């Protein structure tokens, strides 16, 4: 799919406004804009054309061409999409204009590009490294990076209390400015990196006035593994295994996105049987993830009975998945061109039995937790995220839909067989913790509805298409996305015609969710941070990558 650009209307309008822009048809298509004109084009897209959603921001090293970024934009009103690329040929002092003031989601994404590639974003208020230590030597995603520059650190990292920003002088040089993150009289506490409320190895530094949160600073990277760098030296089949180590509660969905992206680049259409199986598996995993979400949220708030109920019911899904895939938490099931094995002979029967079992069991969750006066008091009106902010941050999934944003990839850009089933996109308007909880509980019902429509109609056919052992993709760039359990999980792939990707970027579902925490916690009580973090439902390995 070419991003709803059948008439190339947005491309033509941008090229008419900026004649220096150049269009490339390779892959999905991309508009290259000179760095001097990029800020103007970005403002035109946001303010003039209504492209309010920054889907993905990818930093890249294009060798002698320079360093730069690829931006995927979407107009949430019209559904139009466009891809822009801009770069600076000066590798030693690469600088791009920041767009964090146009799209709030660019804040942490630009910090990531700075961390990995050393690109300075002019006008960004806080260009600290996002994942790596401040004393890290070099920038890992540059093609000339040498791993020997950094050994295993033997000392503790000192916390950097200064935000960094760059300004350009008239002669083209840079001025580095430092701004204190916290004032001397602020009371700042650490939550994490080892704390139940952070839902993983994540650290918050919270400024308090009594019990009230004034601001919050996020520290990521404690389990950063350099997955995107590793992909550059792997064959395409080898990269699949790394997706399972991102959002481990959406391993099936993550693989689905990468397989779709590679298959699109190959021009490979998989059989209807494969599409049905993949769709059913994705929905089983969504139910699995949402049950764990409810369990852990309830546990955080002291409702242990719901925690036990969730794990009881989740086990039945894991048993079904294990019987076909051999795995429970990580299934390694999707392959390029299909799935690794056909469904188990008992798969259809056991899936139908689970749905019959699960429907009445959902009433238990609502009786024990949803209607509980303590739970409602702590969740209703807490951690409100507006629809406008949800779009600006790119906070998709249940978080965005709880704020009234219909952002479901299954509806926006249908894949698998989602265009053949009837299901509701669950939205609320309150944007609070309770709405985020209810979206996911109702989505369990919708996932069961989807599975029921498909389970008795799985067509005959191949479960694995014929694919060459050594896969080389044509030159070009492609983007594919799925609706993960926590939101849009996207894969950006750039190929130079080799057996390994030139650049492979995974659009984290959790990074936008973490980026909005500072906004929605200000003015809340410190105790509310537990409920807010729980209902955002981020998974840290997906963030750290």
Please provide a written account of the structure.
This protein has helices at 9-17, 35-48, 106-117, 227-231, 236-243, 251-266, 272-300, 304-325, 347-370, 373-379, 387-393, 397-402, 409-412, 433-455, 510-515, 517-521, 528-536, 540-544; strands at residues 22-24, 30-32, 53-61, 67-74, 81-88, 95-97, 120-122, 162-168, 174-180, 187-191, 203-209, 212-219, 334-335, 338-339, 476-484, 487-495, 503-507. It is of the alpha+beta class and 545 residues long. The chain starts with 8 loop residues before the first helix and ends with a helix.
Features:
545 residues, 18% strand, alpha+beta, single chain, five-stranded mixed beta sheet, 17 strands, three-stranded antiparallel beta sheet, 18 helices, Beta Polymerase, domain 2, disordered N terminus, Cytochrome-c3 Hydrogenase, chain B, globular, 2 domains
The side-by-side strand order for the widest beta sheet comes to 1-2-5-4-3
Q: Which of globular, elongated, flat, extended, rod-shaped describes the shape?
A: globular
CATH level 1 name of the largest domain: Mainly Alpha
Span between termini: 27 Å
Please tell me the overall pLDDT: 92
**What's the CATH superfamily of the largest domain, by name?**
Cytochrome-c3 Hydrogenase, chain B
CATH topology (level 3) name of the largest domain:
Cytochrome-c3 Hydrogenase, chain B
| Count of DSSP H/I helices | 18
